[in-house]
Design brief:
The chain is mostly helical. The chain has one domain (2-192). It is 79% helix and 0% strand. The protein has eight helices and no strands. It has helices spanning 2-19, 23-61, 63-78, 87-100, 104-120, 130-141, 148-156, 166-192. It is globular. The chain crosses the membrane at residues 6-23, 44-71, 91-112, 133-157, 163-183. This is Spore maturation protein A. InterPro entries: Gate_dom.
Length: 193
């Protein structure tokens, strides 16, 4: 469906430009946008490699296990039906850690791994468990202490102060996470009735 919407938007833009005699602007804009996308991607590769490397080192060095030990009481409250020593807990901790570091692109594969681990605990394979819904809610809001990806984008775009958004990001992501966890718990209570 999304492909149809994008096709309609592109076609209507091209038709509108053609009707106004400015079809060359469509071509120039498309080429410039593609060039900008490649430049931005190349600028972000370094930052993403750095943070993904740090996460891998943290995993191999046992730091993730230490963080898991520290976060276990909180994660245990958020995911009460997941056994403490199950691999899903480690995957959930990795996902939350990536969110805390603001690694939006790294959260996706880690979240998928956590969901796969949670699926092993799922008695109904075609229905999401409450733990899966909670993890999805946490990944969606993504409480962030260091918005590394946004800082990298702002820096790549030439911002004079790319870290100016850190305070606002912490506040907004904290309140969004608290709100979504409250809604998640309310929905879980209502579904039990």
């Amino acid at each position: 469906m999304i492909n149809v919407i994008w096709m309609i938007l592109m076609a209507s833009g091209i038709i509108y430009a053609g009707m106004n005699g400015k079809i060359e602007l469509v071509t120039a804009s498309a080429i410039n946008a593609a060039k900008d996308a490649v430049e931005l991607s190349l600028n972000l590769i370094g930052v993403m490699c750095l943070w993904l490397g740090i996460m891998k080192i943290a995993e191999l060095s046992g730091l993730i296990k230490a963080i898991s030990y520290l976060l276990n009481p909180i994660v245990g409250l958020l995911f009460p039906r997941v056994p403490k020593n199950h691999p899903a807990m480690g995957a959930i901790i990795m996902t939350i850690s990536a969110n805390l570091l603001g690694l939006g692109n790294a959260v996706t594969p880690l979240g998928i791994k956590a969901m796969q681990q949670l699926q092993t605990l799922n008695p109904k394979k075609d229905t999401a468990t409450p733990a899966m819904c909670t993890l999805l809610a946490l990944c969606t809001t993504g409480f962030t202490l260091v918005p590394a990806t946004i800082i990298a984008i702002r820096s790549a775009a030439g911002s004079t102060n790319p870290t100016a958004i850190v305070g606002a990001t912490i506040i907004v992501s904290l309140f969004a996470t608290i709100f979504v966890l409250c809604v998640d718990r309310i929905c879980q209570l209502l579904s039990r009735r």
